[in-house]
Structures are given as structure tokens and as C-alpha cells.
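Field reference: "sequence" (input) and "structure" (output). Example, Putative integral membrane protein:
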Amino acid sequence: MNAKAKGYVLGAIAAATYGMNPLFALPLYKAGMNPDSVLFFRYLFAIPVLGIMIKARGRNFKLKPNEIVPLILMGLLVSFSSLALFQSYNYMEAGIASTLLFVYPILVALIMAFVFKEKLTLQTIFCILLALGGIGLLYKSGDGTTLSLTGVLLVMASALSYAIYIVGANRPLLKNIATLKLTFYVLLFGMTLFLVRIDFGRSLHIVHDWYLWGNLIALAIFPTAISFLCTTLAVQYIGSTPTAILGALEPLTAVFFGVTVFGESLTLRLCCGIILIILAVTLIIAGSNVTSHLVRFRKLFPRLPLKKKNAKS
């Protein structure tokens, strides 16, 4: 397998593993856990995994004083985004929620246009209309009932807060922090939201079956560690734009598991809505500078400069 083929395979794995959130979260809900408890354990287990990855690369955990407050704000944005998405699973099918969440690159483009005065092109406007058309088709679930307005608003709030995080993480103050370390502190500071919501452990729901602990660990491993590592390698092999476009597999994975594992319905109209949203996001990634904001994983594992043979130690 050549390098390009490896890159596409790794990019597909990265997106697919990131789309596994419902696969591991929904059985935990069925066992009586609430989103706050699920996310608390997900963050708790993911933080040491990322810490080990940082140490494995010989990096340090030092922060500059002026980076701490912005990282706290970024952490709260990401944790709120996670909470809103996981809450939405209680109001709508997980596959639909994951598809609606996928509009966040379009929201990034809108933020860059209206806040930072980047040019809003006709292509971007066309993509927005495509996405709105797709959302309109998804607004009724597979059994014909209208989607919960609360659920839709939760997903849109999740997408917007994640889009704000992406833009903020690429501003000059945080742009030079390696993505792996940035993610470590974002999760560390973001976990405080769940600590408060579970009343510092007094309202924490704990599962008793061993296989459900496997689900909690899997949430930290697959959508976090494996997805990060595969995305990193994919960007190195094929670049950031194809890797970002392969992100379309995230909602498709969620829909696949929703239908095959959890019995969620999938009609022709829903398929058309999903295709429209994925097409809109793919076009906006391929045809604008949004990609530079979506993918900055190249700095996760930067290539170290080769030492010259005669260089002094």
C-alpha cells in the first residue's frame, strides 16, 4: 500500500472512530447513566491517555500565564458542546443528531465572515442553502413524527460552540500551542463543568456491569486517542483538505450504527437530507480556507529535524 492509500485509509478510520460516540454512549443511557456522568468518565479516562501521548513525544506540559484563561474558556466551550450533543441523544435519533452536528464547518465559515470580515462567497451561500435544505428534510424522523425542537436546538448549540472553539483555538494567542497539549488542557479544564453538574461526585451515576465500563473506556480510546492518531498520520500522508473531507464519514458512521445496532429508521427522505448536508460541508471544505481552521493536527507529532552526522552534541 502506497503512502497516499495509507493516508486515505487512516483518514477514514479517524472519521469513523470519531463517529462512534452513540455506539458507546447509548447503552450507558439505557443502563441508567445520564450525559453528565458519561462525559465525566469520558474526559477522566481520556486525559491520562493524552498525557501519555504527550510524554511519549518528549513534550512538556508548561503553559504561559496568558494562555491559562483562554484555555479555560476553550475547555468550557468544548465541554458544553459535548454536553449539548449527548443531551440531544435523549430527544432524537443519534444518527440524525450526528448529521446535524456536521454543519459546524459552515458555522466556522459564517463566523469568519461576520466576525473577522472574511469574504462570504457565492459558493459559501450555496452551501448554506444546501445544508438548510438537508436540515429541512431531516426535520421529520423516519416514522413521520417531527423532530423535537429541543433536540434540534441542543445540536445546533453544540455545533455553534464547537465552531467558536475551532475559531478561537486558531487565534494568535493559542495557535502556537501544539494541538495535543491544547486538547489535553481543554479536556482538563472542561471536565470542571461536569464536576459541578454532578455535584462534585455526589450525583455521579456509576455502572456496575463490567462491559459497560468497557463502553466508558472505549469512549476515551476510539473517538479520542485513535481518532487523533489516525488524523495526525492522515494529514501527513495526504494533507489537511482530503482529511477534513473524509470527516463526512463521522455522521455516516453514527447513522450506520444507529440503524444496525439501535434499530433507528432510515427513509429515502432522510437519506437525501444526509446527502445534502454532507455535500454542502464537503464543498465548503474543498473550496474555501475553512480547512486551515478545521485541521491543525500536523503539529500533534511534528517531525523532528534530522541531526547531521558531524554535528556536535
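The chain has a mean pLDDT of 84.
The CA atoms of residues 37 and 292 lie 34 Å apart.
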